[in-house]
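Thread: Modeling a multi-component assembly for a lab meeting

Hi all, long-time lurker, first post. My supervisor asked me to bring a structural picture of a complex we are working on to next week's group meeting, and I have zero experience with this. I have the sequence lines for every component (595 residues in total). Could someone generate the structure of the whole assembly? Inputs are pasted exactly as I received them:
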Amino acid sequence: MKDLTSWAIISITLTFLIGPFIIIIFAGASAGEALAFPPDGLSLKWYLKVFTIESFRQSFILSMGLAIFGTLAALLLGVPAAYALNRYDLPGAETIRTIVASPIIVPGIIVGLALLRYLVIPTGFTVTLALFLAHTALVLPYAVRVVSSSLNNLRSDMEEAAVLLGCTRLQAFTKVVLPNIQGGVLAAFILGFVTSFNQVPVSLFLSGPGVKTLPIDMLAYMEITYDPSVAALSALLAFMSLAIVFVAERLLGFSRYV
Amino acid sequence: MSDKYVSLSNLTLSYGKTVAVPNLNLDVVEGELIALLGPSGCGKTTTMRAIAGLLQPTSGSIAIDGRDVTRVAANKRGIGLVFQSYALFPHLSAFENVAFGLRLQKMSDAEVRKRTDAGIATVGLTGFEKRKPAEMSGGQQQRLALARSLVMEPKVLLLDEPLSNLDARLRLEMRTELQRVQKATGVTMVFVTHDQSEALALADRIVLMKDGKIEQLGTPHELYAKPATAFAAEFMGFENIFRVEGGNLVSDSGQLPLGFNAVSPMLAWRPSGVQVGRGPFSGTVSASSFAGGHREYVIDTPLGEIKADASIETPEVPIGDTIAFDLPEAAARPLSV
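Re: Modeling a multi-component assembly
Sure thing. I ran the full set together rather than chain by chain. Output:
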């Protein structure tokens, strides 16, 4: 009886997690003209059509660029920040940690509106620059969090040993600390990349005419055209995320860091 | 040979507003193996970190080989430190761990290889060059850490609790190893420990520290036989320590008449110095255990608990029975407070 109950719970959970994904895959593989489930026959035409839509191509490139460079920038800021918070007894370290984590806690709608009202409008930043800054800020908490946890596992006496062997502080960081936290840095990159790529609410406010991230572009597309291509694209993106996480898990045991 | 190879003068060390070591003066002789001994919080590790340059003194100075290094950065002092945790670099092989410091110097690859191989051979790890630290035993890791410091030919080698992470057999092995390395290289060694048996067995001289101050400084024999204070006596295994007041031995629980004249304010006996089976005093056996060469008694007396070792030749007195004992003058160690 107990066995039956736990199986039931597991089945329901998996159905809710994987079910929508399966529906999307099949909805995209429809032979018909409208988004529907079950589909009117099966074909790959919508999967192929996705690649011919010019606006999707442009927004895909923008989203990729934002995810890659936004995450890199977040790591450039986040790794030193995590190191400082971890190694030095800074006054107000807890407050800094909370502020750094706030983009996770504050709803994206609010972050987006605030950035629009107080950053983009007064400064007149271009849409691309504003998006880049916003995505960097959004990914930063993940970078700090994940890198911090791998720094916690690294004893500080290793750096002292390096210094006593002749290293400067900076050399000790590059020769001893970085090689030992590279797994954490990579994990932070992947987590940041996926977060940024799938971001909707903040990008919604900051996207401008002709400059849209892929998720926003998909929303816009659906308002006008109700064909299965959006479902096909969603399925392709889900497969891409899955592949990234799968490779990461194989390469560095991703689940240890998240 | 310099008598002041490492010289600490009026050294004050603090963490924030907490003074850990106030005004320490200590001279270490070139080529000696000196132990900083004391309980945790006595300032021994703090002192060692200051010598290494990892902690900047609040005031006072540190000189090594006649040169004031108080303001010299840790990476320019030429001091080696073997950490308690070994602090090996987990991402590097044994060879690269030892070569790490040499590679930072302007040195040819051939020279690095030669000196690293020699260093690895010194600690008996030839054949383990390709292993990562995680693939080595605790004893091997420690020898690797030792080699990593030694190849730098440091002026002073500091060791933080060098034997504490090893089991009894390895401890003996490492002890011999350290003495051999020290003889072979002549390097001045300062090691920190809270274990008096470690200090007694290894050191040429022992600095016993309490509350950041030197309680007593001497050879292991001097400290063992002639502790000067109650603190030193307790550390050296004098488990029975009493005050002397008006011809009586006094403790917090009571008193007993002293059978001889004493001028010192305190007297102490090791358990082995207490005479059991005969004597003017009596008490009740509250615990008894067989310790191989002798039997250890805990006796309830008017002075409180007294620890006494009895020969195994004498018949065992069961727990609860009365036992006669004496605190003889010959085994009494006079203490100044």
